[in-house]
């Protein structure tokens, strides 16, 4: 079966307050609670990606009540030593047979999910943040959701480019135009963040330079800190971490260096109040909200299994935190420009380049974009 792509117009319904709607009819009629298992190839406490997924399921349980919805989180670990247990754990939950849906995400779980989906055709799965290959099966029991992270990172890049020469900001050296990017691993999702970040920065200032580093994993915060410290020491005064728990190292480096670091996936300024002065805002990938929506649709029997959906600004799948903290740190002229850019992206006047999906840039195009901002 050919993979299908569907952009669902969710608009504001993807935000957590709007997700607190009426209990789905299926949940009201069924005496047994709907049960979900969230399998994390990592651990909670990353203040980022996995915590967002867990927060969404927690919010849904609080809304519906445990008599209607229950979930379990399995923290499988993220190190190379943990990888061997990811697929067996997936099979253990399939063998259990008591879960209405098993949820997992990231490219690292693709093989385990593909095998399980074929071996357990009656088990339903939700897969997030990586494209599922429906040509290998899973047309009837795998729902796939991805996020237009390039749109959110475009705004971060634009903000960073404006900040790096703004003399009104205390932790800026306006004498150069260098900003930083710290990725976890060099895969298509992280590259999607990167190309959006670079393009947003270049559209503000074609002379911008971007220092780029990859940790090689999503858990080693010490290495992430060392890499970010090197970027700050070499002239970057604004950074963007897209590295899960490893990215927390960049935030620590920003504090130690007296620089700025944008957060990712969760509102890291709110989650890390001691570091908030160095975090202007965070680019959110609304994993938790997308899981709330998917499970509610599944309770109604309306979740489109066999379908890949991409959620961006227009669908509420990504956002930039624009709260009082954001207003306190960033000057009004920067905030006004960012709001205008977001509106243009949402209404289609700006089409942000991407590294994923049918319109993905080629590897050569991505490398050309990266080379255009290479630090001299």
From TrEMBL:
Q: Does the keyword Transport apply?
A: no
Task: State where the protein is found.
Answer: Cell membrane
Organism equals Candidatus Limivivens intestinipullorum
What is the organism lineage in this UniProt record?
Bacteria, Bacillati, Bacillota, Clostridia, Lachnospirales
Domain (ABC transporter substrate-binding protein PnrA-like): residue spans on this chain: 35-353
Q: Which keywords, in A-to-Z order, does the entry hold? A: Cell membrane, Lipoprotein, Membrane, Signal
Annotated Gene Ontology cellular component terms: plasma membrane
Matching entries from PANTHER family are given as: ABC TRANSPORTER GUANOSINE-BINDING PROTEIN NUPN, TRANSCRIPTIONAL ACTIVATOR PROTEIN MED
Point out the signal peptide segment: 1-21
Q: Does the keyword Cytoplasm apply?
A: no
The protein's name: BMP family ABC transporter substrate-binding protein
């Amino acid at each position: 079966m050919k993979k299908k792509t569907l952009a669902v117009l969710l608009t504001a319904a993807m935000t957590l307050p709007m997700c607190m709607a009426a209990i789905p009819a299926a949940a009201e009629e069924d005496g047994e609670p709907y049960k979900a298992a969230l399998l994390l190839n990592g651990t909670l406490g990353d203040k980022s990606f996995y915590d967002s997924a867990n927060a969404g399921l927690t919010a849904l349980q609080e809304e519906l009540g445990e008599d209607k919805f229950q979930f379990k989180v399995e923290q499988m670990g993220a190190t190379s030593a943990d990888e061997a247990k990811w697929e067996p754990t997936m099979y253990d939950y399939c063998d259990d047979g008591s879960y209405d849906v098993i949820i997992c995400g990231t490219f690292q779980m693709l093989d385990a999910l593909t095998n399980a989906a074929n071996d357990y055709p009656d088990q339903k799965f939700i897969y997030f943040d990586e494209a599922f290959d429906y040509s290998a099966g899973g047309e009837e029991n795998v729902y796939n959701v991805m996020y237009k992270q390039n749109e959110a990172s475009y705004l971060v890049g634009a903000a960073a480019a404006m900040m790096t020469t703004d003399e009104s900001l205390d932790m800026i050296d306006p004498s150069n135009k260098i900003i930083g990017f710290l990725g976890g691993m060099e895969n298509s999702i992280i590259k999607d963040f990167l190309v959006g970040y670079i393009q947003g920065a270049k559209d503000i200032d074609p002379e911008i330079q971007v220092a780029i580093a990859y940790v090689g994993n999503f858990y080693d915060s010490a290495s992430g800190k060392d890499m970010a410290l090197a970027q700050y020491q070499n002239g970057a005064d604004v950074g963007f971490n897209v590295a899960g728990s490893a990215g927390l190292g960049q935030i620590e480096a920003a504090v130690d260096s007296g620089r700025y670091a944008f957060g990712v996936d969760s509102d890291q300024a709110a989650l890390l109040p001691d570091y908030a002065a160095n975090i202007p805002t965070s680019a959110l990938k609304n994993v938790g909200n997308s899981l709330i929506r998917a499970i509610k649709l599944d309770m109604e029997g309306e979740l489109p299994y066999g379908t890949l959906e991409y959620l961006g600004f227009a669908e509420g799948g990504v956002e930039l935190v624009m709260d009082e903290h954001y207003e306190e740190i960033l000057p009004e002229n920067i905030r006004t420009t960012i709001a205008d850019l977001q509106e243009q992206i949402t209404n289609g006047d700006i089409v942000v380049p991407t590294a994923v999906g049918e319109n993905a840039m080629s590897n050569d195009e991505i490398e050309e974009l990266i080379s255009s901002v290479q630090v001299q």
